[in-house]
Amino acid sequence: MPACAQRASPQSERMRELVHLVRQDCGSCHGLTLQGGLGPALTAAALRDKPRDSLVATVLGGRPGTPMPPFHGIVAEDEAAWIVDRLQEGFPADPGAGR
Ligand code: HEC
């Protein structure tokens, strides 16, 4: 296990991939604008007051008994934390969309 070095954020190329992943993969359940669909809204307003750690755990481990799948192995722990931070402040637009 590598030491839990806290990188400030993933490299910019990987960040673009993560934004795309969230918009596409997460968006397939949470809505393309993340306003909710099969899964609840992932907007800043919906998530702001929820504990960050439990949201990160949800992304990594999924929610057993619900359609929310685990993304462990698809995103690293620091990447899941990065995604949750972005979601809680309002998720950036997909830089790959509309091209
Ligand atoms: C197959 C459908 C599906 C996909 C894909 C999916 N989710 Fe979910 N997600 C759900 C459902 C359904 C719930 C609600 C679970 C429950 O009832 O507790 C949920 C819950 C969540 C929650 C907790 C929300 C809250 O208000 O507590 C977060 C955060 C979340 N998802 C993030 C993500 C992220 C980030 C991705 C992509 C990396 C993703 N989800 C992909 C279906 C999905």
Could you name the key traits of this structure?
99 residues; 4 helices; 0% strand; binds heme C
SS element count, helices = 4
Order of secondary-structure elements? HHHH
Distance between the termini: 39 Å
Strand content range: under 5%
Please identify the structural class as seen in this structure.
mainly alpha
Top CATH class: Mainly Alpha
CATH architecture: Orthogonal Bundle
Quantity of strands, as a count = 0
- What does the main sheet amount to? none
Query: pLDDT below 50 for ≥5 consecutive residues: which ranges?
Result: none
Bound molecules: heme C
Query: Helix content range of the residues, please?
Result: 40-55%
CATH topology: Cytochrome Bc1 Complex, Chain D, domain 2
Could you describe the 3D structure shown?
With 99 residues, the protein is mainly alpha-helical. The chain has one domain: Cytochrome Bc1 Complex, Chain D, domain 2 (Orthogonal Bundle). 46% of the residues lie in helices and 0% in strands. The chain has 4 helices and no strands. The longest helix has 19 residues, at 12-30. The mean pLDDT is 90. Bound molecules: heme C. The site of heme C has 21 residues, from α1 and α3. Residues 22, 25-26, 28-30, 38-40, 42, 50, 55, 58-59, 63, 66-69, 71, 83 line the site of heme C.
